Amino acid sequence: MAGKMAACIFCKIIKGEIPSFKLVETDKTLAFLDINPLSRGHALIIPKFHGAKLADIPDEHLADILPIAKKLVKATGAEEYNILQNNGRGAHQLVDHVHFHVIPKPNEKEGLGISWPQQPTDMDKLKALFEDLKSKV
């Protein structure tokens, strides 16, 4: 894990080894502008705790994320926006350190574009899935 942390671009940003446009910083969290934005005000919020996927991050290191996202949205003045967090390459994660995108959606051409491949519902299968998941949470 230490080797991955040493090579992690977000860990280097946290340590100040790579400059960033810091917007908000707490003891557990850092928010900064994305240098390849999808729209004006596109920012990233990261826990200072290194972990590749959301399930790798202890809960106490996630507590600031949504309040900071709310502050950033208000600061941009965006009326429409996405909060996005990807886990794994198949889900479009490129940096293996948990990060949340705050992406203003000012118009059709800027911001996040989404495909939503909705699946048909089989109520018996949905009920079985519900029972399985409910027993595990």
TrEMBL record:
The active site is at H99. It catalyses: adenosine 5'-phosphoramidate + H2O = NH4(+) + AMP. GO terms for biological process: nucleotide metabolic process. InterPro entries: HINT (IPR039384), Histidine_triad_CS (IPR019808), Histidine_triad_HIT (IPR001310), HIT-like (IPR011146), HIT-like_sf (IPR036265). The keyword Magnesium applies. Residues 9-112 form the HIT domain. CDD domains: HINT_subgroup. A motif (Histidine triad motif) lies at residues 97-101. Signal peptide: none annotated. Keywords: Hydrolase, Magnesium, Nucleotide-binding. Pfam families: HIT. GO terms for molecular function: hydrolase activity; nucleotide binding. It comes from the Eukaryota. The keyword Thylakoid does not apply. Belongs to the HINT family. This is Adenosine 5'-monophosphoramidase HNT1. It comes from Dichotomopilus funicola.
